[in-house]
UniProtKB/TrEMBL annotation:
Main localization, broad class: membrane
Membrane topology: Peripheral membrane protein
SUPFAM superfamilies tied to this protein: UDP-Glycosyltransferase/glycogen phosphorylase
Gene this protein is translated from: murG
InterPro entries to which the protein is assigned, alphabetical: GlcNAc_MurG (IPR006009), Glyco_trans_28_C (IPR007235), GlycoTrans_28_N (IPR004276)
Segments forming domain Glycosyl transferase family 28 C-terminal: 187-337
Superkingdom, natural source: Bacteria
Stored PANTHER family: UDP-N-ACETYLGLUCOSAMINE--N-ACETYLMURAMYL-(PENTAPEPTIDE) PYROPHOSPHORYL-UNDECAPRENOL N-ACETYLGLUCOSAMINE TRANSFERASE, UDP-N-ACETYLGLUCOSAMINE--N-ACETYLMURAMYL-(PENTAPEPTIDE) PYROPHOSPHORYL-UNDECAPRENOL N-ACETYLGLUCOSAMINE TRANSFERASE 1
Upper lineage: Bacteria, Bacillati, Bacillota, Clostridia, Lachnospirales
Native source species: Lacrimispora amygdalina
Alphabetized UniProt keyword annotations: Cell cycle, Cell division, Cell membrane, Cell shape, Cell wall biogenesis/degradation, Glycosyltransferase, Membrane, Peptidoglycan synthesis, Transferase
GO molecular function: UDP-N-acetyl-D-glucosamine:N-acetylmuramoyl-L-alanyl-D-glutamyl-meso-2,6-diaminopimelyl-D-alanyl-D-alanine-diphosphoundecaprenol 4-beta-N-acetylglucosaminlytransferase activity; undecaprenyldiphospho-muramoylpentapeptide beta-N-acetylglucosaminyltransferase activity
Binding positions (UDP-N-acetyl-alpha-D-glucosamine): 11-13, 164, 194, 289
Protein name as annotated: UDP-N-acetylglucosamine--N-acetylmuramyl-(pentapeptide) pyrophosphoryl-undecaprenol N-acetylglucosamine transferase
Biological process terms in GO annotation: carbohydrate metabolic process; cell division; cell wall organization; peptidoglycan biosynthetic process; regulation of cell shape
Length: 356
């Protein structure tokens, strides 16, 4: 039986692509283990998937002064020793890393033991943890054509992001019934991220009376962001968070309005949904969402509305323009080759193991 270790953590975005690979790895009879941090978000997500999990010590690499900068290098060294010990015990044929600082000691330990490593970089420009790991990698997968210029040519592969199969199996009528909406008007689905977005929420609610003349709205607004004054408004439904029924709400949507996190927009592309991307501003992030959204806009997949330009008027115009040009966007998305990342990466894993 072939053995693989998956790693990555710190945010859900460093875990969900790994989760997308697990069913296919199981079908091919891989023994799967996961190495993450002791108490990171990845632990619960992986244990819920019933995959054996091992925690290691980890530290963060900061670009600014912090007392922890003097402590965390020792945590990384300790994590390297722990990862080395785990790999000597499990003897994996392959390591697949989704990034995050917990992945650094795992990837370096694999390199030390001459175990092939595949890294996946979601954003257009590699984050610090992946930049440290790239020299130790056998292959580096990415989502954007522009990312290839940041990677060694001998290692870089444009694959897109692995998407969970169940997200593609939603049913439109189930979604409409869940949201208590009709088939008579197009549906706009707004997703502001796990914490929601006050800016996006306010812009949507400010134009709601006009929107509801022609559309229905499903608004996933984030924890603590429900507006009780809008409860019961016909054609508008709001949720703090949606889990299992999300695939059906995706299927029900004619247009999606979203932030521009790499995993989210790759899911939108896989679903072939009309979309408007409102990336986090550079002031609120390292600017990766802006670059992600600009790439998708340039490729014709998305309408880009930058947060600095967001207001009720510009949002309403964006919605109107996107529907007016729907055939253009749908044709561009249909022509994209980045629609089967899971199988592409599984084949890569198989080929590298056979050559090692």
């Amino acid at each position: 039986m072939k053995k693989i270790i998956l790693t990555g953590g710190g945010t859900a975005g460093h875990v969900t692509p790994n989760l997308a690979l697990i069913p296919s790895l199981k079908e091919k009879n891989y023994e799967i283990r996961y190495i993450g941090s002791y108490q990171g978000i990845e632990r619960k997500l992986i244990e819920n998937a019933q995959i054996p999990y091992s925690g290691i010590s980890t530290g963060k690499f900061r670009r600014y002064f912090d007392v922890k900068n003097f402590i965390d290098p020792f945590r990384v060294i300790k994590g390297f020793g722990e990862a080395l010990k785990l790999m000597k015990r499990y003897k994996p044929d392959m390591v697949f890393s989704k990034g995050g600082f917990v992945a650094v000691p795992v990837v370096l330990a694999a390199k030390h033991l001459k175990i092939p490593v595949i890294i996946h970089e979601s954003d257009m420009t590699p984050g610090l943890a992946n930049r440290i790991c790239i020299p130790a990698a056998t292959r580096v997968c990415c989502n954007f054509p522009e990312t290839l210029s940041y990677l060694p040519k001998s290692k870089a592969v444009l694959t897109g992001s692995p998407i969970r199969k169940e997200l593609l199996e939603g049913d439109r009528m189930t979604g409409l019934n869940y949201a208590k909406l009709s088939e008579n008007k197009p549906v706009i689905l707004i997703i502001g991220g796990s914490l929601g977005s006050v800016t996006v929420n306010n812009a949507i609610r400010g134009i709601l009376p006009k929107l509801l003349n022609n559309y229905q709205v499903i608004h996933i607004c984030g924890k603590g962001n429900l507006d009780e004054s809008l409860a019961g408004v016909r054609g508008y439904v709001q949720y703090e968070y949606v889990d299992a029924p999300l695939k059906h709400l995706f299927a029900a949507a004619d247009l999606m309005i979203s932030r521009a996190g790499a995993n989210s927009i790759c899911e939108i592309l896989a679903l072939r949904k009309l979309n408007i991307l409102i990336p986090l501003s550079a002031a609120a992030s390292r600017g990766d969402q802006i670059l992600n959204a600009r790439s998708f806009s340039k490729q014709g997949f998305s309408y880009l509305l930058e947060e600095e330009n967001l207001n009720g008027s510009t949002l309403l115009q964006a919605i109107t323009d996107t529907f007016a040009n729907r055939q253009y966007y749908l044709l561009k998305m249909e022509s994209s080759e980045l629609h089967d990342a899971v199988n592409t990466i599984i084949e890569m894993i198989e080929n590298l193991i056979s050559k090692n």
